[in-house]
Amino acid sequence: xxxxxxxxxxxxxxxxxxxxxxxxxxxxxxxxxxxxxxxxxxxxxxxxxxxxxxxxxxxxxxxxxxxxxxxxxxxxxxxxxxxxxxxxxxxxxxxxxxxxxxxxxxxxxxxxxxxxxxxxxxxxxxxxxxxxxxxxxxxxxxxxxxxxxxxxxxxxxxxxxxxxxxxxxxxxxxxxxxxxxxxxxxxxxxxxxxxxxxxxxxxxxxxxxxxxxxxxxxxxxxxxxxxxxxxxxxxxxxxxxxxxxxxxxxxxxxxxxxxxxxxxxxxxxxxxx
Length: 273
What we know:
Layout: E1 2-7, E2 13-20, E3 25-30, H1 41-44, E4 52-57, H2 75-88, E5 95-99, H3 102-113, E6 120-124, E7 129-130, H4 133-139, H5 142-145, H6 148-151, H7 156-170, H8 177-188, H9 192-199, E8 203-204, H10 206-211, E9 216-221, H11 229-238, E10 243-247, H12 254-257, H13 259-272
Parallel strand pairs: 3-4, 3-5, 5-6, 6-9, 9-10
Antiparallel strand pairs: 1-2, 2-4, 7-8
Helix pairs in contact: 2-3, 7-8
């Protein structure tokens, strides 16, 4: 595995991990809220690496990327970050695979740059909307929304328990200790101002998904504790040509909990487009 550092929107320095074969069809993994590129370890170190060029970016504010004070509300900046990865690393029509908040980033990109430079998109427990309290209540269960004050807190005695609860809500099963502490580590490394900037966006990219024509793969767990069940139905209704894959007994992160199945489906999808 190797690393890249490139310049994204507004001069933000972005960190990208790369694995797999350089000549393979590329897949660009885009992680979720308060995570980092290491969330995709079960893909980067999987059989996918035998056939495809695999890249996982640290979103602005996360991992080893820059964490500017106020650069999270502008869709154009998010789009420029993805475009910078595609152009700088010379990705030939990648599939964009976005988990959770990564769906907003995918749709930010398509809104600005269209679909000409990508082969398709994979949405994993993803949404296209954020907004006021009423909108958030249509997307997230009350248990998740109740954690929001801890996400924004500068007090470690408040933030760490909140992030711990967030991690366990993402997964339907208790992760092994090594995995849990790795996840907690990269969650804690995200500053509170970044999490606040992400969740305070007022955005509806649903029309972007509805207008997309390139192949779409939707993957959702039926025991998701981060998104309400209606989000999956809404996404499938917007992308009527999409392939919908439902994971029984799986939570918000099917790529982690059901990695073998997820990798097989993603590999088949990438090979076909």
